[in-house]
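Researcher: We're reviewing a set of sequences before deciding which ones to prioritize for further study. For each one, I'd like a predicted 3D structure that I can look through quickly. This is Molybdenum cofactor sulfurase C-terminal. If possible, include the structure in C-alpha coordinate form so it fits the rest of the review sheet.
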Amino acid sequence: MSSWHNILGDLDLDLVLISWTISILCCLPIIISWSRRKTHPLRPKGCRRLGLPPGQSNLHDEFNPKYSRGTPQNSKDENGLPSWRIKALFIYPLKSCAGIELQNSDVVPTGLKFDRQFVFAENGAEGWNTRTLRNAGYQRLALIQPELWIPDPSSPDYDPNLPEIQSQGVMIISYPRPQSVTRIGQFLEKIGTVTHLIKSRHAFSVPLFPPKNSENYSLLPVKIWKDKPLAFNYASFLPPSLHKYLGFNASPSQSQSPISLFRASPQHTRQIFRNAPRQETLGFQPNTAFADAYPIHLLSLSSHRDVASKCAYAIPNLSILRFRANIIIQGPEAFAEDAWKRISISGVEIHAACRTIRCKLPNVDPVTGIRHKVEPDKALKSYRRIDEGDLTNACLGMQLVPAVEEFGLRVGEEVVVLETGVHRYIKMLAPGEKVEGV
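Model: Here's the predicted structure for Molybdenum cofactor sulfurase C-terminal, in C-alpha coordinate form for your review sheet.
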Protein backbone atom coordinates (compact mmCIF):
# COMPACT_ATOMS: atom_id res chain seq x y z
CA MET A 1 0.00 0.00 0.00
CA SER A 2 2.77 2.42 0.90
CA SER A 3 4.39 1.97 -2.51
CA TRP A 4 1.08 2.97 -4.19
CA HIS A 5 0.96 6.07 -1.99
CA ASN A 6 4.49 6.97 -3.11
CA ILE A 7 3.57 6.50 -6.76
CA LEU A 8 0.41 8.59 -6.40
CA GLY A 9 2.38 11.22 -4.50
CA ASP A 10 4.92 11.45 -7.32
CA LEU A 11 2.08 11.70 -9.85
CA ASP A 12 0.49 14.52 -7.87
CA LEU A 13 3.80 16.35 -7.74
CA ASP A 14 4.39 15.85 -11.45
CA LEU A 15 0.89 17.15 -12.20
CA VAL A 16 1.63 20.25 -10.15
CA LEU A 17 4.87 20.82 -12.04
CA ILE A 18 3.12 20.27 -15.37
CA SER A 19 0.37 22.74 -14.50
CA TRP A 20 2.91 25.31 -13.40
CA THR A 21 4.88 24.78 -16.61
CA ILE A 22 1.79 25.27 -18.81
CA SER A 23 0.81 28.40 -16.91
CA ILE A 24 4.27 29.91 -17.13
CA LEU A 25 4.67 29.05 -20.81
CA CYS A 26 1.36 30.77 -21.56
CA CYS A 27 2.52 33.89 -19.76
CA LEU A 28 6.14 33.67 -20.92
CA PRO A 29 5.94 36.38 -23.63
CA ILE A 30 4.47 38.84 -21.12
CA ILE A 31 7.00 37.85 -18.43
CA ILE A 32 10.00 38.23 -20.75
CA SER A 33 8.74 41.56 -22.06
CA TRP A 34 8.29 42.85 -18.50
CA SER A 35 11.60 41.48 -17.25
CA ARG A 36 13.54 43.13 -20.06
CA ARG A 37 12.34 46.49 -18.83
CA LYS A 38 13.99 45.87 -15.50
CA THR A 39 17.52 47.18 -15.48
CA HIS A 40 20.46 45.60 -13.74
CA PRO A 41 21.55 47.26 -10.49
CA LEU A 42 23.04 50.65 -11.32
CA ARG A 43 26.75 51.12 -10.90
CA PRO A 44 27.75 53.36 -8.00
CA LYS A 45 27.46 56.97 -9.12
CA GLY A 46 30.64 58.71 -10.15
CA CYS A 47 32.66 55.47 -10.16
CA ARG A 48 34.21 53.01 -12.58
CA ARG A 49 34.70 49.27 -12.16
CA LEU A 50 38.26 48.20 -11.42
CA GLY A 51 39.75 45.29 -13.33
CA LEU A 52 39.66 43.60 -16.72
CA PRO A 53 36.28 43.47 -18.48
CA PRO A 54 34.19 40.37 -17.70
CA GLY A 55 35.23 37.42 -19.84
CA GLN A 56 38.75 38.72 -20.49
CA SER A 57 41.86 37.25 -18.86
CA ASN A 58 45.59 37.22 -19.47
CA LEU A 59 45.46 33.59 -18.31
CA HIS A 60 43.18 32.45 -21.14
CA ASP A 61 46.01 30.17 -22.34
CA GLU A 62 47.39 29.08 -18.97
CA PHE A 63 47.29 25.40 -19.99
CA ASN A 64 49.46 25.92 -23.08
CA PRO A 65 52.40 23.44 -22.89
CA LYS A 66 54.85 26.22 -23.76
CA TYR A 67 54.62 27.53 -20.19
CA SER A 68 56.13 24.29 -18.91
CA ARG A 69 59.45 25.17 -20.54
CA GLY A 70 61.91 27.72 -19.27
CA THR A 71 63.62 30.34 -21.42
CA PRO A 72 66.92 32.21 -20.89
CA GLN A 73 66.79 35.40 -18.83
CA ASN A 74 67.09 38.60 -20.90
CA SER A 75 65.88 36.80 -24.05
CA LYS A 76 62.96 37.95 -26.22
CA ASP A 77 59.92 36.02 -27.42
CA GLU A 78 58.55 35.88 -30.97
CA ASN A 79 56.86 39.27 -30.43
CA GLY A 80 59.99 40.96 -29.16
CA LEU A 81 58.76 41.05 -25.57
CA PRO A 82 60.91 40.04 -22.57
CA SER A 83 60.63 36.28 -22.05
CA TRP A 84 60.68 36.74 -18.27
CA ARG A 85 57.72 38.99 -17.59
CA ILE A 86 54.50 39.46 -15.65
CA LYS A 87 51.81 37.29 -17.18
CA ALA A 88 48.91 38.33 -14.93
CA LEU A 89 48.08 40.43 -11.87
CA PHE A 90 45.43 39.67 -9.25
CA ILE A 91 44.10 41.21 -6.09
CA TYR A 92 41.80 39.56 -3.54
CA PRO A 93 40.05 42.45 -1.78
CA LEU A 94 37.94 40.09 0.34
CA LYS A 95 40.22 37.42 1.75
CA SER A 96 39.50 33.86 0.51
CA CYS A 97 36.82 35.08 -1.90
CA ALA A 98 37.08 35.47 -5.69
CA GLY A 99 39.86 37.61 -7.09
CA ILE A 100 39.94 40.57 -9.46
CA GLU A 101 42.32 40.45 -12.42
CA LEU A 102 44.09 43.70 -13.30
CA GLN A 103 46.14 44.99 -16.19
CA ASN A 104 48.10 47.27 -13.87
CA SER A 105 48.16 48.01 -10.17
CA ASP A 106 49.53 50.49 -7.70
CA VAL A 107 51.63 48.98 -4.94
CA VAL A 108 51.22 50.46 -1.45
CA PRO A 109 52.96 49.52 1.82
CA THR A 110 50.56 46.61 2.48
CA GLY A 111 50.98 45.12 -1.03
CA LEU A 112 48.96 45.57 -4.21
CA LYS A 113 46.38 48.30 -3.62
CA PHE A 114 43.09 46.94 -2.21
CA ASP A 115 44.51 43.42 -1.77
CA ARG A 116 43.27 41.54 1.35
CA GLN A 117 41.73 44.64 2.93
CA PHE A 118 38.52 42.87 3.96
CA VAL A 119 37.92 39.59 5.78
CA PHE A 120 35.09 37.58 7.28
CA ALA A 121 35.48 36.71 10.96
CA GLU A 122 33.53 34.52 13.35
CA ASN A 123 32.78 35.48 16.93
CA GLY A 124 34.01 32.85 19.38
CA ALA A 125 35.07 32.44 22.98
CA GLU A 126 38.31 34.34 22.31
CA GLY A 127 36.75 37.09 20.21
CA TRP A 128 36.71 37.57 16.45
CA ASN A 129 38.70 35.04 14.40
CA THR A 130 39.28 35.36 10.66
CA ARG A 131 37.70 32.67 8.50
CA THR A 132 39.14 31.48 5.19
CA LEU A 133 38.94 28.60 2.74
CA ARG A 134 41.15 26.64 5.14
CA ASN A 135 38.36 26.41 7.70
CA ALA A 136 35.91 23.51 7.47
CA GLY A 137 32.58 24.54 5.99
CA TYR A 138 33.92 27.80 4.54
CA GLN A 139 34.73 26.56 1.03
CA ARG A 140 31.63 28.47 -0.15
CA LEU A 141 33.67 31.67 0.29
CA ALA A 142 35.23 30.83 -3.09
CA LEU A 143 31.93 31.70 -4.80
CA ILE A 144 31.60 35.13 -3.18
CA GLN A 145 32.55 37.72 -5.80
CA PRO A 146 33.69 41.23 -4.85
CA GLU A 147 33.66 44.10 -7.34
CA LEU A 148 35.57 47.32 -6.73
CA TRP A 149 34.17 50.61 -7.97
CA ILE A 150 36.50 53.57 -7.56
CA PRO A 151 35.89 57.32 -8.10
CA ASP A 152 36.08 58.45 -11.71
CA PRO A 153 36.15 62.27 -12.16
CA SER A 154 35.47 61.79 -15.89
CA SER A 155 32.13 60.13 -15.16
CA PRO A 156 29.14 62.33 -16.14
CA ASP A 157 27.51 61.80 -12.73
CA TYR A 158 30.66 62.42 -10.68
CA ASP A 159 30.08 64.64 -7.67
CA PRO A 160 32.66 64.96 -4.86
CA ASN A 161 29.81 65.15 -2.35
CA LEU A 162 28.37 61.75 -3.26
CA PRO A 163 28.67 59.16 -0.47
CA GLU A 164 30.35 56.80 -2.97
CA ILE A 165 33.05 59.39 -3.55
CA GLN A 166 33.37 60.34 0.11
CA SER A 167 34.15 56.70 0.92
CA GLN A 168 36.78 56.59 -1.88
CA GLY A 169 34.73 53.98 -3.70
CA VAL A 170 32.42 51.04 -3.12
CA MET A 171 32.80 47.27 -2.97
CA ILE A 172 29.85 45.28 -4.29
CA ILE A 173 29.70 41.75 -2.86
CA SER A 174 27.64 39.10 -4.64
CA TYR A 175 27.02 35.45 -3.76
CA PRO A 176 24.80 32.59 -5.01
CA ARG A 177 21.17 32.48 -4.00
CA PRO A 178 20.66 29.50 -1.65
CA GLN A 179 18.76 26.78 -3.49
CA SER A 180 15.30 25.74 -2.37
CA VAL A 181 15.08 22.34 -0.65
CA THR A 182 11.85 21.33 -2.48
CA ARG A 183 11.39 20.21 -6.07
CA ILE A 184 8.67 22.77 -6.69
CA GLY A 185 10.83 25.51 -5.19
CA GLN A 186 13.83 24.53 -7.34
CA PHE A 187 11.62 24.40 -10.43
CA LEU A 188 10.16 27.84 -9.80
CA GLU A 189 13.61 29.28 -9.07
CA LYS A 190 14.92 27.90 -12.37
CA ILE A 191 12.04 29.46 -14.30
CA GLY A 192 12.51 32.70 -12.38
CA THR A 193 16.21 32.97 -13.16
CA VAL A 194 15.68 32.16 -16.86
CA THR A 195 13.08 34.93 -17.14
CA HIS A 196 15.14 37.28 -14.93
CA LEU A 197 12.32 37.53 -12.42
CA ILE A 198 14.64 36.02 -9.83
CA LYS A 199 18.33 36.84 -9.63
CA SER A 200 20.70 33.90 -9.36
CA ARG A 201 22.88 35.91 -6.99
CA HIS A 202 22.28 38.25 -4.08
CA ALA A 203 24.36 41.42 -3.79
CA PHE A 204 25.02 44.27 -1.39
CA SER A 205 27.57 47.07 -1.21
CA VAL A 206 29.94 48.48 1.39
CA PRO A 207 32.11 51.61 1.42
CA LEU A 208 35.77 51.03 0.58
CA PHE A 209 36.69 53.25 3.53
CA PRO A 210 34.53 54.27 6.51
CA PRO A 211 33.26 57.83 6.06
CA LYS A 212 35.15 60.41 8.08
CA ASN A 213 33.79 61.29 11.51
CA SER A 214 31.38 58.33 11.41
CA GLU A 215 30.58 56.60 14.70
CA ASN A 216 28.95 53.56 13.04
CA TYR A 217 32.20 51.63 12.53
CA SER A 218 33.66 50.29 15.74
CA LEU A 219 37.30 49.23 15.82
CA LEU A 220 37.66 45.69 17.18
CA PRO A 221 40.58 43.26 17.46
CA VAL A 222 40.45 40.52 14.81
CA LYS A 223 42.69 37.50 15.20
CA ILE A 224 44.69 36.44 12.16
CA TRP A 225 47.24 33.78 13.03
CA LYS A 226 48.91 35.19 16.16
CA ASP A 227 48.19 38.85 15.44
CA LYS A 228 45.13 40.81 16.60
CA PRO A 229 45.03 44.06 14.61
CA LEU A 230 42.18 46.49 15.13
CA ALA A 231 39.75 46.55 12.20
CA PHE A 232 36.48 48.28 11.31
CA ASN A 233 33.37 46.18 11.96
CA TYR A 234 31.03 46.24 8.92
CA ALA A 235 28.37 44.00 10.52
CA SER A 236 25.55 46.48 9.83
CA PHE A 237 25.91 45.95 6.08
CA LEU A 238 25.45 42.16 6.05
CA PRO A 239 22.01 41.05 4.80
CA PRO A 240 20.28 38.01 6.35
CA SER A 241 20.68 36.10 3.06
CA LEU A 242 24.48 36.23 3.43
CA HIS A 243 24.24 34.74 6.90
CA LYS A 244 22.11 31.98 5.42
CA TYR A 245 24.56 31.42 2.56
CA LEU A 246 27.44 31.06 5.04
CA GLY A 247 25.45 28.57 7.09
CA PHE A 248 24.27 30.80 9.94
CA ASN A 249 20.72 31.49 11.07
CA ALA A 250 21.57 34.74 12.80
CA SER A 251 20.52 38.15 11.58
CA PRO A 252 22.82 41.17 11.40
CA SER A 253 20.40 42.99 13.71
CA GLN A 254 21.36 40.72 16.60
CA SER A 255 23.69 42.27 19.14
CA GLN A 256 26.11 39.34 18.94
CA SER A 257 26.17 38.17 15.33
CA PRO A 258 28.28 35.01 14.87
CA ILE A 259 29.79 36.26 11.59
CA SER A 260 30.86 39.70 10.47
CA LEU A 261 32.82 41.54 7.80
CA PHE A 262 35.87 43.56 8.81
CA ARG A 263 37.85 46.21 6.98
CA ALA A 264 41.54 46.66 7.76
CA SER A 265 42.40 49.93 9.45
CA PRO A 266 45.22 51.87 7.71
CA GLN A 267 46.41 52.97 11.17
CA HIS A 268 46.57 49.43 12.56
CA THR A 269 48.40 47.31 9.99
CA ARG A 270 50.51 44.30 11.01
CA GLN A 271 54.26 44.80 10.98
CA ILE A 272 56.21 41.93 9.42
CA PHE A 273 59.47 40.53 10.77
CA ARG A 274 60.56 36.88 10.45
CA ASN A 275 62.13 36.60 6.95
CA ALA A 276 61.37 40.19 5.93
CA PRO A 277 64.16 42.76 5.54
CA ARG A 278 64.38 45.14 8.48
CA GLN A 279 63.81 48.86 8.81
CA GLU A 280 67.58 49.39 8.99
CA THR A 281 67.80 48.07 5.42
CA LEU A 282 64.66 49.55 3.85
CA GLY A 283 64.05 52.67 5.90
CA PHE A 284 60.64 51.30 6.94
CA GLN A 285 59.33 48.10 8.51
CA PRO A 286 57.26 46.02 6.04
CA ASN A 287 53.60 45.61 6.95
CA THR A 288 50.40 44.11 5.60
CA ALA A 289 46.63 44.06 6.16
CA PHE A 290 44.89 40.64 6.09
CA ALA A 291 47.42 38.82 3.89
CA ASP A 292 48.73 35.75 5.69
CA ALA A 293 52.28 36.93 6.19
CA TYR A 294 53.89 39.15 3.52
CA PRO A 295 52.72 41.95 1.20
CA ILE A 296 52.99 40.22 -2.21
CA HIS A 297 52.82 36.62 -3.41
CA LEU A 298 54.57 35.64 -6.68
CA LEU A 299 54.05 32.39 -8.61
CA SER A 300 55.66 31.06 -11.79
CA LEU A 301 53.59 29.40 -14.52
CA SER A 302 56.25 26.76 -15.17
CA SER A 303 56.40 25.82 -11.48
CA HIS A 304 52.65 25.54 -11.35
CA ARG A 305 52.51 23.43 -14.52
CA ASP A 306 55.00 21.00 -12.94
CA VAL A 307 52.78 20.59 -9.87
CA ALA A 308 49.65 20.32 -12.03
CA SER A 309 51.21 17.44 -13.96
CA LYS A 310 51.64 15.48 -10.71
CA CYS A 311 47.94 15.60 -9.87
CA ALA A 312 46.45 15.44 -13.37
CA TYR A 313 45.10 11.97 -12.55
CA ALA A 314 42.64 13.62 -10.14
CA ILE A 315 42.30 17.15 -11.55
CA PRO A 316 43.00 17.26 -15.31
CA ASN A 317 43.20 21.06 -15.52
CA LEU A 318 44.47 22.42 -12.24
CA SER A 319 44.20 26.20 -12.55
CA ILE A 320 46.90 28.44 -11.15
CA LEU A 321 44.08 30.50 -9.63
CA ARG A 322 43.83 27.92 -6.84
CA PHE A 323 47.06 29.33 -5.38
CA ARG A 324 45.78 32.92 -5.21
CA ALA A 325 49.01 34.69 -6.19
CA ASN A 326 49.23 38.44 -6.81
CA ILE A 327 51.91 38.29 -9.51
CA ILE A 328 51.98 35.41 -12.00
CA ILE A 329 55.09 35.33 -14.18
CA GLN A 330 56.21 33.44 -17.25
CA GLY A 331 59.71 32.58 -18.50
CA PRO A 332 61.84 30.97 -15.76
CA GLU A 333 62.15 27.20 -15.67
CA ALA A 334 60.21 25.34 -13.00
CA PHE A 335 61.19 26.29 -9.43
CA ALA A 336 64.01 28.62 -10.49
CA GLU A 337 62.49 31.16 -8.07
CA ASP A 338 63.30 28.92 -5.07
CA ALA A 339 66.75 30.55 -4.87
CA TRP A 340 65.84 34.15 -5.68
CA LYS A 341 66.84 36.71 -3.06
CA ARG A 342 66.34 39.99 -4.91
CA ILE A 343 64.56 40.76 -8.17
CA SER A 344 63.66 43.85 -10.17
CA ILE A 345 60.28 44.61 -11.72
CA SER A 346 59.47 47.96 -13.28
CA GLY A 347 62.96 49.05 -12.24
CA VAL A 348 62.08 48.58 -8.57
CA GLU A 349 64.12 46.34 -6.31
CA ILE A 350 62.03 43.69 -4.56
CA HIS A 351 63.20 41.29 -1.85
CA ALA A 352 62.16 37.65 -2.18
CA ALA A 353 61.78 37.21 1.57
CA CYS A 354 61.02 33.48 1.65
CA ARG A 355 59.29 30.63 -0.10
CA THR A 356 55.52 30.32 0.18
CA ILE A 357 54.62 27.51 2.55
CA ARG A 358 51.48 25.82 1.26
CA CYS A 359 48.45 24.57 3.18
CA LYS A 360 45.37 22.70 1.92
CA LEU A 361 43.58 25.86 0.82
CA PRO A 362 44.33 25.21 -2.92
CA ASN A 363 42.31 21.98 -2.64
CA VAL A 364 39.22 24.19 -3.04
CA ASP A 365 38.21 24.72 -6.67
CA PRO A 366 37.69 28.51 -7.14
CA VAL A 367 35.07 27.87 -9.83
CA THR A 368 32.86 25.36 -8.02
CA GLY A 369 33.78 25.88 -4.36
CA ILE A 370 34.23 22.10 -4.02
CA ARG A 371 37.11 20.90 -1.84
CA HIS A 372 39.10 17.97 -3.26
CA LYS A 373 39.96 15.35 -0.68
CA VAL A 374 43.71 15.22 -1.36
CA GLU A 375 44.92 17.28 -4.32
CA PRO A 376 46.96 19.32 -4.96
CA ASP A 377 48.20 19.04 -1.35
CA LYS A 378 49.22 15.40 -1.80
CA ALA A 379 51.19 16.07 -4.97
CA LEU A 380 52.97 19.06 -3.44
CA LYS A 381 54.01 17.18 -0.32
CA SER A 382 55.32 14.27 -2.39
CA TYR A 383 58.28 16.33 -3.68
CA ARG A 384 58.10 19.98 -2.59
CA ARG A 385 58.96 19.76 1.12
CA ILE A 386 62.27 21.45 0.44
CA ASP A 387 62.69 24.21 3.04
CA GLU A 388 64.64 23.21 6.15
CA GLY A 389 62.68 25.78 8.12
CA ASP A 390 59.48 23.76 7.66
CA LEU A 391 59.90 20.24 6.29
CA THR A 392 56.33 19.34 7.25
CA ASN A 393 54.76 21.46 4.52
CA ALA A 394 55.41 21.95 0.82
CA CYS A 395 56.59 25.12 -0.94
CA LEU A 396 55.35 26.80 -4.10
CA GLY A 397 55.95 30.45 -4.99
CA MET A 398 57.72 33.29 -3.25
CA GLN A 399 56.77 35.98 -0.72
CA LEU A 400 57.91 39.45 -1.77
CA VAL A 401 58.73 42.65 0.08
CA PRO A 402 59.41 45.72 -2.13
CA ALA A 403 62.36 47.93 -1.21
CA VAL A 404 60.14 51.02 -1.68
CA GLU A 405 56.72 51.71 -0.23
CA GLU A 406 54.91 52.83 -3.39
CA PHE A 407 55.28 52.12 -7.11
CA GLY A 408 53.34 50.61 -10.01
CA LEU A 409 53.13 47.19 -11.70
CA ARG A 410 51.90 46.37 -15.18
CA VAL A 411 51.29 43.14 -17.09
CA GLY A 412 54.16 42.53 -19.52
CA GLU A 413 56.87 44.16 -17.43
CA GLU A 414 60.20 42.38 -17.33
CA VAL A 415 61.32 40.34 -14.33
CA VAL A 416 65.08 40.48 -13.66
CA VAL A 417 66.90 38.43 -11.03
CA LEU A 418 69.46 40.53 -9.15
CA GLU A 419 70.64 38.04 -6.51
CA THR A 420 70.23 34.39 -5.61
CA GLY A 421 70.99 32.62 -2.35
CA VAL A 422 69.81 30.27 0.38
CA HIS A 423 66.38 30.47 1.99
CA ARG A 424 65.31 29.12 5.36
CA TYR A 425 61.72 29.72 6.37
CA ILE A 426 61.01 31.18 9.83
CA LYS A 427 57.70 30.05 11.31
CA MET A 428 55.16 32.35 12.89
CA LEU A 429 56.20 33.36 16.40
CA ALA A 430 54.17 34.20 19.44
CA PRO A 431 54.31 37.87 20.58
CA GLY A 432 57.67 38.52 22.24
CA GLU A 433 59.16 35.21 21.04
CA LYS A 434 62.53 35.51 19.30
CA VAL A 435 64.44 33.39 16.82
CA GLU A 436 68.00 32.60 17.80
CA GLY A 437 70.45 34.56 15.70
CA VAL A 438 67.81 36.86 14.22
